[in-house]
Structure formats: structure tokens, C-alpha cells
Hints:
The chain has two domains: 185 residues, Glycogen Phosphorylase B (Rossmann fold), CATH 3.40.50; 172 residues, Glycogen Phosphorylase B (Rossmann fold). By secondary structure, it is α/β, with parallel strands linked by helices. The longest helix has 18 residues. Helix 1 packs across helix 13 and helix 7 packs across helix 9.
Amino acid sequence: MIRAASLVSYQITPPKMGGQKSIYFFLKYFSRYCDVICYTTKNNIPANNESFLIKKILNNHKLRYVNPIYFFKLKKEFKKDNITHLILEQPYYGWLAILIKKTRGVKLILHSQNIEAMRFRSTGKWWWRIMSWYEGLVHRAADLNFFITDEDMNYSLHKYGLKKENCTVITYGTERDKSPSKHEKEAAKKEICRQHGISEENFLLLFNGTLDYPPNKKGLDYILHEINPLLLQQPTFKYTIVICGSRLPSEYNNLNDHKERNILYAGFVNDIDNYFMATDIFINPVVDGGGIKTKLVEALAAGCSAVSFSNGAIGVPAAITGNKLRIVADHEVKAFADGIIQSASSVKYDIPAEFFDHFYWDKIAKKAFQQVNSLVI
Length: 377
């Protein structure tokens, strides 16, 4: 019988940002197939009805990543809890996971949300080469590697010298198993427009994310300085760009002074799914960062049409979106603006069942369990 441990070195509950959601919902659905205990940091705030057990044994201090005491704590906990498999979320605690594997005889699965070395490189971090060396070491030590996209897996096969039979794609997902109805979409749009004083005749365009994260900040700059000026040149196109997200950089504090330019900053919203439901077109002008853009999956699952730069659409096959996703070359802002206009002329409410076959969390978790179950103890 599988008793899986998940080692998570940062807060995932309550899940708010894409990285938190990716781990949290994976564990929520994976725990349908086997017992799961998540060993994580003390700043987690789990709900009363979590489907998996959360043990807060790691402190929140940045030195937790190099604290050798956790080896002895986890070794003791794993013995007490009869852990058979360790799922390491991200490579940071790789040294600790490898020691546990060697001393407790558990199977090690590295669940990668992106290629961290390449994410650091794209955001200008000087230590990306050190991370590349360390990340490769941890991947090679794992019995099984979960990657979030084909692109990440293929990169790691080549760069880190992994065996293909030890690698599989376990993508980000959605809790939806079908597209919302036209009525649900219209009701959500009516409510969001009422809340913000927007005309219901306007097309709602949405951009969201953690806004001081460099790839998202760059995407916001594209919207404000290049894409929106092109849209303003289309006098018959009635629209509002709604921007949601936390940690808005101070230089954008006057964002809501641009309402006459069809820009509205809604701040951080707890009910982001309502905004996805209300949105006609999700815009994703992101060209940096790694892994899959979780917000694009969520937007499509909520029935939005979407326009994305190529990098921002990695991991989302356009062929299964029913032509609701338009992908344009990175940095091509004119093509991006044209894609918005074209999407507005043919708004559809349904996304094919194939999309949910690929991205529904339960199917993703079942695939992951089958891979884990194949490992011989």
C-alpha cells in the first residue's frame, strides 16, 4: 500500500497564487487514490476539511533550506507514518530528500513546476548556473520525475541526462470537468460590470497575476504601453481591460487614473474565478518565466477566449481548445492586438471535452498515481 509524503518548503494553504494552487490541487486529488501526508511550513493555514493530512514541521526562516535538523525530524516522522514514497515539490530540498531516500528506502518522486534554472536565467538571476547543476543532480537521483510540460521534460532529458522511462508529464489542472454555460457566463459578466460600473456592452479583457513578478510586470507594460494604444485606434471596439493581482509596483499606483483609456485595476480579488467567468477574452502577453501559465488554463476552463504570446502558451495545446486560444509570436504586439479584435468577432462559450480530458485534476492525479504505483518498493 502506498503512503505518500509530500515535502513542500513554502506556504500552499490557502492556495492563492498559481504555484500554490498547482501543488495544493495536485495533492487534493492525488489523495483520492492513496494516503497523503504533506510536511510543510508553519505559515500554512489549512482548512478544516482538507482531504490530505498537513504536518507543519518546517519553520518559515529562509535558513530552513540548509537546516540539517530536518533530516532527523523527517526520518523519525517517516518511520512513524510508514511512508513508502516521497514526492518532493520543487528541487530546493533535494539534498534532504536524497538523504531520506538512502536511509529510509523510500521511492523519490521529484514534482517539478518548471525548470528553476531557466526561470532564474530569464529573470536575470546570476546564480542560475548553480541551480542548473543542483537541479540536475536532484532529478538524476529521483526514481520518477514529474514535469509540468513536454518542453520542460524534453529540456531535462537533454540537459540533465535523464532516462525517458523515469519521466512523465503531470500538467497543471482545473477543478472543472466541463465548460460553464452561456447563462453562467452572462450572469457573471453582469455582476462584475455592475460591481465596477462597466457597460455590459463592452468586451471584458482580463489580465491577472502577481504584478511585481518580473514576467508579469513585463506583460503589464506590454498592455499599458503597446497593446492598449493599438486597441484605442479601433473606435468601434468597445472594451475594458480589467487587471487583477497583488503586489502592484509603486510606479503603477495611478493605474485607475487611466479609466478613460479603458483600463481598470481591480486589485487582488479572492474570487478570481468569478472574473474568469465574466471575461470575454483573457490576454496573456507573457514572454518570460518557466513552466505552464496556470492562469491561462484557468481562463480557458472558465470559457474565456484567450490571446497569448507563444512563450505564455507553453503546455497548453491549442488543438484541444476549440479555436478559443490564439497564439502569436513573442513580442509581436500588433499581431497580439489583432488577435484580440479577431477573438472578439467570434466569441464562443464552449470549450471541447478534449480540453477537460487533458486538464481535469482528477484525471491528472490518476495518471500520477498509476506512475507512482508502478515503482517497485
